[in-house]
Amino acid sequence: MSPQEQINGLTDQLNYYNHQYYQNSVSEVDDFTFDRMLEQLTALEAQYPEFKRPDSPTNRVGGGISKEFATVYHRFPMLSLGNTYSEAELVEFDNRVRRGLDGQTFEYVCELKFDGVALSMTYENGVLVQGATRGDGVRGDDITANIRTIRTLPLRVSDRMGQSPEASTPVPALFEVRGEGFLPIAEFERINKEREDIGEPLLANPRNAASGTFKQQDSRIVAQRRLDCYLYSFLADEEVFKTHEESLIALKGWGFNVSPTWRKCADIREVMQFINDWDTKRFELPLATDGIVIKVNSYAQQRELGYTAKSPRWAIAFKYKAMAASTTLNHVTYQVGRTGAVTPVANLTPVLLAGTVVKRASLHNANEIERLGVQLGDTVFVEKGGEIIPKVTGVDLTKRTDAVRPIIYPTNCPACQTPLVRMEDERGGVQAHFYCPNEKGCPPQRQARFEHFIQRRAMNIESLGEGKIELLIERGLVQSPADLYELTTEKLLGLEKTYPATSSLPDDGSGRSPAEEPGKARTVKFGQKTVDNILKAVERSREQPFTNVLFALGIRYVGATTAEKLVDYFGTMDALMAAPLEVLITVPEVGPRIAQSVAKWFADPDNRDYVERLRAAGLQFVGERKVVEVRSDRLTGKTFLYTGTFANFSREQLEAEIAAHGGKLVSGVSKKLNFLIVGENAGPSKVSKAESLNVPMISEDEFMAMLT
Ligand SMILES: NC(=O)c1ccc[n+]([C@@H]2O[C@H](COP(=O)([O-])OP(=O)(O)OC[C@H]3O[C@@H](n4cnc5c(N)ncnc54)[C@H](O)[C@@H]3O)[C@@H](O)[C@H]2O)c1
Ligand SMILES: [Zn+2]
């Protein structure tokens, strides 16, 4: 391949990865591979400048702006950071700084490099007026509404509010703060557990999840995910602080969330020490980190050092290589998840990785096995990244022997032998996972249905957790959650089983990724007190509101929030069961995918029997209806969005009115929107977006005229 072809190839490929990473929140390769390719391109371009393309990723900040949000221009460009994986290059950086500062003394501030999304927040007279993404560095997306959902981000700051004595610096009239928006790991795992429970595909890692969340059009969805933000930079027209350190202290004093992990370092040796200190300790932090950011402390010196087109010369990111180890893949087991998804798990010769012994690692799905080209007996690389569960990331082909055997993916469910199927994904392709379609009879799926049913947000019978359900199913005491309402003291008292010490519980096919917990022997026992607690909880569950009951049914894609919307709209189980698909689709925030899933579920006679048994058991089938009766079909097939306030309607009333006439409320301005209803104090971004997309805008009066 000629150098020009190489440059072209790398440019196209890196631009594509950048697009996937920043626009679609997907990493198709790991960061190390990406950075190595970028380095290769930089070197080639230096050697053959004549072939360097104007769209080269080497002279641009990686992100872009999207059509879904209004565009904002940054008052100060938002740059990237130079990065390195090696200590030798860090020493070179230190030498460059030293030369650039001509022998002056200087200090560094080291911070953790948080792995999320760069955010910029502008405050005017102490009030948060704008929040934006980095975008291409010059222009970003206006995501103010989403950023406002971050609970730790002050919407208003004042120097008097600060609790610390350092907060004495007055708050400037206009300033900008920057930080990293992220999903705490615990929150990431909570969301994935919920998604797994209702059959939504899992989010890949906390960074991509955070990035995807900030780009949601509906800030109500954003608010349900508890995003957080660590602030690491302050900017204003006038000089407020002399050093970065001072700004961090003041930001904290003004009530911003500044991670306490930063430290001032006198020289590069102390920096190295800081890097070593956090090498594995960073896994104890509540969020994903991928390195250390090293910044020259003095602002005057920062100005002296200046910037390249892409990044400051006074800062660098040291990135940790993902924690990797190599070991042998002995065999693959397959777990069946709550919704029938089959997950292959690598069983490894135990190996030490980032302070824990790893015996099992995720192989994700059949596509991943194919992509890795891995075989049984291979030496594989196992990595621990931002996530808790290690994963197999590659094969050491230099160690492959003749003894390797191909991995034969099962064609039948490992739990119930039903032939596996692949389903279509939302874009019409096939999903990466194979599924066991035997929803009713497959033991792990059946058990998962019970676990779903008893959880707090459903029927709240959690005293039945931890092995008790398994035992009841095994003894034939329950087959369907409706049977729980026929349990008696006589049936339960004295039941007992000891689960052996190894893997019988973790291997229950629950589909949860393989944790590293050692399996201890456990005894499940139904003594008098346990039995009383269970029966009491079952009794109390009869009072759980209809929303919980509907969620408890375990209809695919119907999470707790969707259940609420359905109850608001229909009010009763009977009305919901009678609703044809066309009506289900008109429910606010219920799209065709959910509507179809609901209709299909209620069309199944077994499911209807199940519902009748729950009714007979006395569960709540009536909720509070918040949507008025459908009064006409004048708005049928039309979509609406409103902005501002109205003379004749509250927001809720307006939403109800749209629904009552068959219209559908949508959450963002797009080409598909039929009408934007514009009231007093309308939001400028919605209006200008509607203008640019030629979406008709109507007044309150015009809207009312449509109803008669
Ligand atoms: N895997 C892929 O497909 C893919 C694609 C594109 C980019 N990437 C990764 O993204 C990197 C490029 O992204 P980038 O331009 O955002 O650079 P970067 O993420 O390496 O560094 C700059 C960013 O670091 C963040 N940051 C975190 N903590 C910080 C702190 N304490 N102080 C200052 N900034 C802090 C900020 O968001 C800032 O914008 C690449 O090096 C690559 O590793 C990966
Ligand atoms: Zn099965």
UniProtKB/TrEMBL annotation:
Binding site for NAD(+): D31, F32, T33, F34, D35, S80, L81, E111, R134, E180, K295, K319
Cellular component terms (Gene Ontology): cytosol
Catalytic activity, EC: 6.5.1.2
Sequence segments annotated as region (Disordered): 499-520
UniProt-listed InterPro entries: BRCT_dom, BRCT_dom_sf, DisA/LigA_HHH, DNA_ligase, DNA_ligase_AS, DNA_ligase_CS, DNAligase_adenylation, DNAligase_N
GO terms, biological process: DNA repair; DNA replication
DNA damage recorded as keyword: yes
Phosphoprotein as UniProt keyword: no
One Pfam short name: BRCT
Active site as annotated: K113
Keywords, alphabetical: DNA damage, DNA repair, DNA replication, Ligase, Magnesium, Manganese, Metal-binding, NAD, Zinc
Location of the BRCT domain: 630-708
Coiled-coil regions listed in the entry: none
Gene Ontology MF term list: DNA ligase (NAD+) activity; metal ion binding
Cofactor: Mg(2+); Mn(2+)
Binding site for Zn(2+): C413, C416, C436, C442
Reaction(s) the record says it catalyses: NAD(+) + (deoxyribonucleotide)n-3'-hydroxyl + 5'-phospho-(deoxyribonucleotide)m = (deoxyribonucleotide)n+m + AMP + beta-nicotinamide D-nucleotide
Family that this chain belongs to: Belongs to the NAD-dependent DNA ligase family. LigA subfamily.
Function as written in the Swiss-Prot or TrEMBL entry: DNA ligase that catalyzes the formation of phosphodiester linkages between 5'-phosphoryl and 3'-hydroxyl groups in double-stranded DNA using NAD as a coenzyme and as the energy source for the reaction. It is essential for DNA replication and repair of damaged DNA.
HAMAP family the UniProt entry points to: DNA_ligase_A
NCBIfam families to which the protein is assigned, alphabetical: dnlj (TIGR00575), PRK07956.1 (NF005932)
Protein name in UniProt: DNA ligase
Underlying gene: ligA
